[in-house]
Amino acid sequence: MARALRRRNHRGPIREALRRNQGVDPTTGETKAQLRLTYPNWGGTLATAGNLVFNGAIDGTFFAFDAKTLKELWSFNAGSGINAPPISYSVNGKQYIAVLVGSKQSQPTMVDFPELKNTSTASMLYVFGL
User: Fold this and answer.
1) 15 has which bridge partners?
2) Number of Cβ atoms within 10 Å of the Cβ of 13
3) CATH architecture assigned to 2-21+39-129
4) Number of C-beta neighbours around residue 108 at 10 A
5) DSSP-derived 3-state class of residue 5
C-alpha cells in the first residue's frame, strides 16, 4: 500500500498541476497566461502590485516573471533548493523580495529528478531590492 500511495502522490495529474503557474482573471475565471515549470512548485508564488511574479525552484533558481504574460524577466541561481514562499516588504518606501533557500529533497523527488542529487542543503536568506 505504501508503494502505491507514494506513486500516486508523486506522479500524475496532481504532480503535473504543481508544475504550472497560471495567470487567471479573477472576475471571469479566464486563464490569461500559463507557464510550465521544470520542477514542481513546492515553495509557492508571489505576485506584486508592480506586475511581477516571483517563484523559486527546487534546483535553486529564483525567477521573476511578467505578471501579464508570465515571460521570464530575470533569474538567479541561489545554489540550493527553494521550497519556501517568497515574501515582499518595504522599508522607507523601497520594496524588497526575500526568499529562504536551502531545502533537502525528499526521496520521491530524488527518484523523479536524479539531477538534483548533489544539490547543497545550506540555509540562506536572500533579499533583493526592486
Assistant:
1) none
2) 7
3) Beta Barrel (2.40)
4) 14
5) helix
